Amino acid sequence: MDFKIWNSSRSEKVIEVFLYPNSTHLGKKIEVSATISDGIKLMKEKGLVEVVDWIGGNVSEVEPMRDVFISYLGVNHSVFGINESTVWTGFANAPMTLVVEHYLFISENWELELARHVMIPPYDWIQVYARQRSELSPIWAGKINSWSSGNWTIVELKPPETIYR
Asked: For 91, which of 52, 67, 109, 121 is 20 to 30 Å away at the CA?
């Protein structure tokens, strides 16, 4: 398990927790407990994580899709500081049980979540949100209506208020 504590722009703390289950956890639920104190307040939280036995998606297959969004952000939202030189670590972050695959890409300061609708054209959309890792909610979202059409025009969307990984 890894974790990182961020100071958000709203003077709150954002805590990221990364779990790395192994084969002994497959099909089981892991209870995660956290006790946090700032010297004044003490907070205890628990969560249950179900470890699903599944094969992750092919991250290298969706990197070109991610890169189209990164290029767009570099030109149209340069204030974010996301561009072709940003280094990303990517992984599939949800079981591939439906027709939408989910991938998470993390840089030093940003998180991009890419959702890929695995269908025949013209229903093969790609959707991405961008979230500063120090914040709870994404600040940007966009969509390509059909990847295989070759028309990779990005339509900006209202970012989701809450996210699930």
From this structure: 121
Q: For the whole model, what pTM was predicted?
A: 0.85
Q: Give the strands of the sheet with 89-92, arranged side by side.
A: 89-92, 100-106, 110-117, 126-132, 140-144, 154-157
Domain boundaries, the chain: 2-50, 59-157
CB–CB of 117/109 below 8 Å?
no
Nearest to 144 by CA among 115, 165, 103, 120: 115
pLDDT in tens, 80-118: 999 999 999 998 887 666 788 899 999 999 999 999 998
| Structure-block tokens of residue 133 | 């890792």
